[in-house]
Amino acid sequence: MQTYLKNYLPLFKFRICSLITFSAVVGLISSSSGNISASSIAFLILATMMASASASCFNHYFDMDIDAVMHRTQQRPIPSRQIDSSRKPLFIAAILFAASILVSFKALNYMVSLHLFLGALVYALIYTVWLKRRSWLNIIIGGLAGSFAVLAGGASAAPGLCLPPVLLAVTIFFWTPSHFWSFAIVHREEYAKAGIPMLPVVIGDARTAGYILLNTLFLVASSFLPSYFGHFGIFYTITAMTVGAFFIIRNIQLLKNPGKEIALKNFKASMLYLGALFLSVIIDVAIR
Fold first, then answer.
1. Which domains does the chain have, with CATH numbers?
2. Which of 285, 125, 279, 133 is nearest to 201 (CA)?
3. Nearest C-alpha neighbor of 36 from the set 157, 155, 168, 126
């Protein structure tokens, strides 16, 4: 049993799933007008984790050929033959996806189910199957998957249109390219070897650094929209200003020196940026 879990658990990419689930919880908190029930949070976490794990499992199966080429991914369960390349991951993905939709529909509401469905669809089919191997736009459109998680969280508190999670979804949409293009600079040679047209492969590291900075300017600008519309207070605004300035400075450093070392620092800075920004949403709502 221990060996089985060791072999299969990496299929679910729990770090990515945790980030997406955290985004959903932030969406819930941002749109809540009162006390949040523990059951709502629990069911949202469960449904979002299952939807994310389902999409990740499908990604492992569909990308087994390119995972075997890239050194970074050669030790994943399928290319390393810890599990066979049969259709078991597809079966697991289908079960998790169905369970996610069922739980969210029964325990929360149909809008949560719809957003989780669309998020998994974007990541599994639009990003993984359609765009990843065909266009440098892959990560831009694929970034919608994270945005749908925020919307799912918001819908769990307010099924109708609610502006705060929509604005946060816009922010995470702009965050994804700055985050992932930095990562792609670090691993450009591997993506090129696998034939994946990530932006640094297509236009080079230096020009990609310029696009990262441009995108980050839109990202930071979008982060002020919740304050502009009066949904969050001074704590969120100050945090957005502070971490936004920090991330822009990191981007400028990458523009001046578009090497792997600075790109990795920029990638880590993007994680710090989003974590601090979303944590400030929780604190801001709590103190208000």
1. 9-159 (1.10.357.140), 162-288 (1.20.120)
2. 133
3. 157
**What CA–CA distances, in Å, run from 8 to 4, 12, 14, 84, 91?**
6, 8, 12, 11, 13
- Residues contacting 240, CB < 8 A, separation 6+: 220, 223, 224, 227, 277, 280
**Helix (H) / strand (E) containing 207:** helix 205-223
**Residue 161 DSSP symbol:** -
pTM of the model: 0.93
What DSSP string describes 22-34? HHHHHHHHHH-SS
Residue 224 and residue 230: Cα distance in Å, rounded? Answer: 10
Phi, psi of 36 (to 5 degrees): -100, 125
Whole-number Å distance between alpha carbons of 288 and 99: 36
Matching residue, tokens 């999670």: 165
Q: What kind and span of H or E run contains 71?
A: none
pLDDT tens-digit readout, 93-143: 999 999 999 999 999 999 999 999 999 999 999 999 999 999 999 999 988
